[in-house]
Amino acid sequence: MDLDVFVSAHRAEWDRLDTLLSRRRRLDGAEVDELVTLYQRTATHLSLIQSSAPDPQLTGRLSRLVARARSTVTGTRRASWRDVVRFLGRGFPAAVYRARHWWVPTALVSTAVAILLGWWIGGHPEVQSSIAAPSQLRELTRPGGQYETYYSSHPASAFAAQVWTNNAQAAAMCLVLGIFLGVPVLFILFENMLNLGVGFGLMSSAGRLDTFLGLVLPHGLLELTAVFVAAGTGLRLGWTLIDPGPRTRRTALAEEGRAAIAMAIGLALVLAVSGAIEGFVTPSGLPTWARVGIGVAAELAFLTYVYVLGGRAARAGETGDLEARERSAAVPTAA
Fold this sequence. Notes:
elongated, 0% strand
């Protein structure tokens, strides 16, 4: 492309767009239509120049012009309670629902790995001895031992806050590190399942598996589900880098990345609930059936929220991404 000829052919349109944007009075209907048309054309021109004949000075001018025009066309918008309601009622559950083909298999495989690790550790004394000395293992697993006192070792509110922080960080890492082809996500998942399997195996070998499950299930069902959702979403984000589908790789990563960031916010709220259960319910004096019942109820409530509200929103076209008017403009590729 001959840049000088291109600039000469379109300079008048850019100048006209600049003039319309600089006017202090309210534009009439015809001028608004003209502004929108010129905005679209200038965005196309910017795309062509960036791909065919990049010129820093000209690109800078057109970028500023396009940004000003987009701001004028779309307007400035502030977040409101409507956005919160939309996010919690449609965006977040729809994003989780759409990712179910990733996080449900992740949950099943991870749980199987934890059970197999627990069975292996519980049935092999030599493996247990490699974890800790026999006296330390007895201290961990005895009635009133460290496994039981762990949940009441700190004030409930402080413990819940600490648990929430740790779990939210793990979920965020799964979501963010998924971009590295999902490999770091697998390590995070395995570390979590290994910790769970060690507790499972040691307590079962001591004949106290019922106590272990009574301590883990109240908060663990919802907590692990949130981690599995984050891990599955991170893996999907990594796969998007490999296979973006019909979208361009840049567009696919932008859309899935925005949905993943929004999901991190939603999962932080879910983990706050599981943290509260772990801090206040798990170490409480409630009977085991009541504590486990609270955990099961919280898990069923979340799954209902995802599959009913999220499924309905996803079928209506909700993706968990930003609304169309809030996304960056899709620049045409033809003049």
